[in-house]
Specification:
The complex is a heterodimer of chains A (640) and B (374). Chain A has 640 residues and is of the alpha+beta class. Chain A has helices at 2-12, 14-19, 21-57, 63-67, 80-110, 116-132, 137-149, 340-348, 350-357, 359-385, 387-392, 401-413, 423-441, 458-465, 494-518, 522-530, 535-564, 567-573, 592-601, 605-639; strands at 163-174, 180-185, 205-213, 219-227, 234-237, 257-264, 267-272, 280-282, 291-292, 298-306, 311-322, 327-339, 450-452, 476-488. Chain A contains 20 helices and 14 strands. In chain A, helix 7 packs parallel to helix 18 and helix 19 (592-601) packs antiparallel against helix 20 (605-639). In chain B, helix 6 (155-171) packs across helix 7. Chain B has 14 helices and four strands. Classes of the chains: A alpha+beta (640), B mainly alpha (374). At the A-B interface, helix 1, helix 3, helix 5, helix 6 and helix 7 of A face helix 1, helix 2, helix 4, helix 5 and helix 6 of B.
Chain lengths: 640, 374
Amino acid sequence: MTSIQASKDLNAKPARAVKSVDGRMRKNVVFQGICVAATLLAISILIVLLLSILSQGIGALSLDFITSLNSSDPHQAGIWTSLFGTILICAICALSAIPLGVGTAVLIEEFKPKHPLLLKAHGIVDTNIRNLAGVPSIVYGILGVTVFATMFGVFGPIDSGRFAIGQDWYDQYVDATGTQLFVPVKNGEVPTVPLYAGPVGDPLKMEVWRREKDDQGRLIWNPVFVDTNFRTPAEILVDQDEERDGIQPLIDEKAPLLATLDVVDGQWLLKLSDEQSELIEFNSTKAGDHTQVRIGDTVRYAHFFDEGLNRLFYSEFMVMNVGKDSLALYGAPVTSFLTAKDSDAASSSPSIVLRSEFQPIKTEINKQLDAFKTVIRREMGDYLVSDENRKRFLKFPDGQEQATVETIVDEAMAQYPFKPATIEQLRPKLIEQMMALNGKSSGDVRTARTEFLDTASSAELLAQLDGKIINGQNPTRVDRKAWYHFSLPFGRGVLAGGLTLMLVILPIVIVASQEALRAVPGSYRQGALAMGATRWQAVSKTALPAAIPGICTGVILAISRAIGEAAPILVLGGTGFITSTPQNLMDKFSAMPMTIFQWTKEPEAYFKDIAAAGIIILLMVLLSFNAVAIYIRHRASKHH
Amino acid sequence: MPESNPPADPARKQIRDLGTPKSDKLRDLRERAIVGSLIGCAVITIGITLGIVFILLSQTIAFFDPAGHLNAQNEVSVVKPGDFFFGLEWNPLLGNEKHFGVWPLILGTFKVALVAMIFALPIGLIAAIWLSEYAKPKVRGFIKPIIEVLAGIPTVVFGFFAVTFLTPVVLRWEWLQTKIKAEDGTYLKGEDGEFLTEPAGLFGLLEVDTYNALGAGLAVGIMCLPIVISLSEDALRAVPRALREGSYGLGASKFETSVKVVVPAALSGVTAAFLLAIARAVGETMIVALAAGASPVKLIGQGSVTENLGSALALNESVLPMTGYMVKIFTGDAPYGTVEYFSSYAVAATLFVITLGLTILGNMVQKRFREKYD
């Protein structure tokens, strides 16, 4: 049509057409130039992408990186945890998706029903599978969570479902000699021997940072050790009588009351003051009614607002301990500032700010944590080397007492990579560390020091435990899982992850297999049928073998999609550093794209480098998969 | 095999090779069992489709439960369908007053998708025209695998690229630091006496946030590029040669033939490619979770209409798309069973309907075009 019209135009105005030949040719050349530029742009993007990743990641890449487990310290973190996880979930995914997908494709392509109604249904299924391939993978992730991880809640909560094999529960006590005592219990039972009674210990001394002037008269932050047990009712006040670096505080009246703390029925309640509601948040709650204070809560308030620069100076406290009539707040004035734009984001959802968008706070908390460690180190050092405990636990190598204590404390602290814990929470961990350390020096102690007790009767047990247990110790509920551990619901483990990925790639496998089967000439099947073969025989002996290379290519491409897919398993597995490889099908896992996502999100710069190194490994795995697919396709085309 | 005779002629031998059954009954039984298991596979596949719809629907209905759900602050919150589907404010994670209007999220998604499409569609189509009409087979054979490599890169890699390269280098110009000016025209100094600096911004003019719609959109566009190129190229190559030759015969140049004959003839295929690319961009998760940020678009509550419109359309600011919200919820921002948790299902259902609509439309358009030339 267009060409005919063009020719008509030519007839109508020949002069103009002839005149513009030059212009038309120029247009053609210009367009070709644009075309080449567009294609070159696409290719150069790929090159820039690969180069930027290579340059960032190559430094972090080493054999150690491949064989190390993941860690919250980027310099020690490796890809092995997630590489192993990827292999495991992709194996589960392939084992489930290939039979299902190829089977469905064979049915759709080779067994077309004759009944008109069924034929219609067949058509609907055929088109729907194509549409399924366009569903965002995160939707499959949500499906996976609901169907596999929680199973609609039919079998109870995830970690203690109604059905489990290969899982035993114990109450773990540590006795005075360091032996770990395990008392078998049923999950959900209260501890058979409630030993814990009496005071937790001394009220924890907290470190509070004070602003002081140094020798040169500059304002610095200095840690001061104070007893942070607030008496009822307490008031949190902001001191803003000082200037900071020449910036005039906007609010310069007397220190305003930000919040009050009251005890009602033994619960600590915090009420944010109304006037200052814009400037204080408690646990993501703004001004309003009383809110109960729990350990781990965060109180954040703004010091002052610097109008010229639209910056907000923040402080943050963490609630460390809630006693009957005392409240230990631990914190340091963060003194980081948010620009006005950031503070909008902050007020709408503080937890996000803390995690990703506002990195200085996290760094500050790490600083606080370091300060906190100092306190704990001192406290625990005193605790460990006190006369009674020294007798109980260990003989330190001569002259290495201090070093040993420090190692123990450091290792115990590493168990709490981000959130500071109370000393009571830490104590069992510290003892555990001590056991492990003791074990190292005197051979394989772990087996010798583990003892399983019978629950013949409470009284008997009490007698067994009596005199052994460290005073004030609460049993820890632990479980031991066998390698064949299996439970319903599946939970957020390897099996659920693999099956969720199966959902994602199933449509791809089906469509690829369908296309491969369609490409086999009909005469193959007709020949077999004419010789008296049944339909399945015709398919399995002629069409399927001929389609195998095509199916293989499709399947390999689908699995390489599964290897790189992050959204559905991220939704299923969640974030958090998984530092061990899965031990059974229900165990938590991480996969390479998940880990890369996590590392990229971390504020510390070196995490970006190891993320790039992880991407290099991931791309290498994918490239080798694709190479296999290309090889199979190439070989198949040679044969035909 | 007592009943079967030794094969005498080649045809019989072939049948034997196909596997002669012991008896017709056994053969029938085996046949039935196999077909039955195939049907089983298909039923599971269909079950998955129905399962998605069922779960999204039932959980969305649960979200709109008139009795309400406890929220993260242990208060009962009730969300009406009208508030969700027509609401203009989204802040479920904020303290006391929660708003569950989905439009800011939809707008966030389409902001990112718009940037992606402005980038990917023209470049993709032009590259496809070049590959199908201009490029020599040798060059094509070299370029095509490169495009395929681009298509095989996991999306999390593009997200990483957006965070570490596109946003800081291309958009924020962090390699060019400028001094911060105070109100009175002097430059600010830090504690150590050095001047405080900030990134220059795009072309030194536009200040771009660390997390923004532009960077995420560009990365999504790069991700969509191979889809647009290969699907459009397939459509263009499927146009019969006769059409091109007719055009050349009438004296048209290569440019005129490509743009006025081949592209219109392949329009349905190209449209399908575009729709599928948009569907991919809308459903993209990892890139936006890494690069787009976490602030829902603010449609109301900022004073004048122009200000609201300005913030609704701003591309240099942090934006929370639908997929980004789901990742936030499922990676632990809301406890299980709370109203915030259920809200992610309603968002997922909305996303599902949008992408499925686009995909179905794309496949329908593509099918029509296929019937035309096959």
